[in-house]
Design a protein that fits this description.
239 residues; alpha/beta
Amino acid sequence: MTLLRDDDLAAAFDHASRSYDALVAANPGYHAHLRRSARRLGLPGYGAGLRLLDLGCGTGASTAALRSELPAAHITAVDASAGMLERAAAKPWADGVTFVHAPAERLAEAGVKGPFDAVFAAYLLRNVDDPDAVLTTVHDLLAPGGRLAVHEYTLSGRRTDRAVWTMVSRGLVQPVASALGDGALYRHLWRSVVDFDTADRFTDRLREAGFDRVRALPLPGWQTGITHTFVARRPETAR
């Protein structure tokens, strides 16, 4: 199948937004894993005085994870899907959360400006046409020393991990999604993970984009070897 991109992908997420929360709630550890990745940013003081960018916030699960771990931070949450963003913005939020409708490639046009103390990107990079360009934008939006956490499906490279991912996707997720009319999006989900970087390749990609202190950290449970948190920093001084 051909991967969905740009407007087609946003439209697919718009349609899926009505059932998205119910589907991810059935994924063991989904929300706990996002909170773990938010903690891995290692930010101090509950985020007091810090500006965070939640890039690709979807229906707000990643925003909630950041809010849970860093309740004193100001969060700008961005997504390209109007339907997903509408669901996110309709949820009850304390002060300090702002939602912006924009694709990751056109943040400046939407008025999203740095510097940010940290950027969190969950399930985003494998869905963009040019991940290197998006990482360059993220690098430039961060303050010197600013931190990045990428929470992403990135296979380890072992055949068993690819087999588990395929079994879960085709045996569980796709039949349910197809019944809801969202089969194309979740077939894209399977393919986008298989076609994307391995964990080692993505760490190299982050270094090539100018980040340092890059680490790939596994997540527990059935997603070990399938989903990772990548943490990195913008260097304090230019190389």
